[in-house]
Amino acid sequence: MKTVFPEINGLGHDCYVHALKVSPDGRWLASADEDSVILWRTDDGSIVKDWNAPFFIELGFTSESRHLVIFCSDRLVVRDMEDPCMCESVTRVPLRREDSTGNTCVWSPDRTLCALSGWGAHSNRNVFHIRIYITETAKALSCYQLCSSGRGPAWSLCPTFSHDNRWLLFTCNYTEYASESVSWIWDIYSTAPPRKLMNHGTAVWRSIFNP
């Protein structure tokens, strides 16, 4: 069995690692702790770059290994792997920093799109924010806010893309009502709002599309 990384003392993270992703072409490895992201070369285990990433949430490589996407705090950062130390696109995501631990980031099957979602409280209402971004440019494609006025705090499943990237499925489970959860489906290329599918009689733990 070949050892991919030699043992290197004194390099790496100084706290728990929350994410570890290898690029599809096997050239790069990205690791992240709560406030930093490190990019490694897989052939020799050397560190290419160490980036500050406060309130880290998620990271991932695009399918062709051309870009590394980092979601942290209130921003989405896309780094071009042709020159990862210099080339980047940054977009600010309108999510409150203190809410970042409840936010999620998921990619479409081909990783050309990413969906960022999270809950926030506004005027005594719980508001679910969900936004779709084009991964390569970090540009917003569509967004939606779902208000749950009069209901208790809620948590949501990570949104799920359909296999053709067109539809997004998400479910909200309301903690004050143990038997209430609601599923929604959204045509992300349409100007129409998400369509309510059904109310469930129990909490929902997983939702998938058929092939």
TrEMBL record:
Q: Which domain of life is it from?
A: Eukaryota
Matching entries from InterPro entries are given as: Quino_amine_DH_bsu (IPR011044), WD40/YVTN_repeat-like_dom_sf (IPR015943), WD40_rpt (IPR001680)
Listed name of the protein: WD40 repeat-like protein
The opening ranks of the lineage are: Eukaryota, Fungi, Dikarya, Basidiomycota, Agaricomycotina
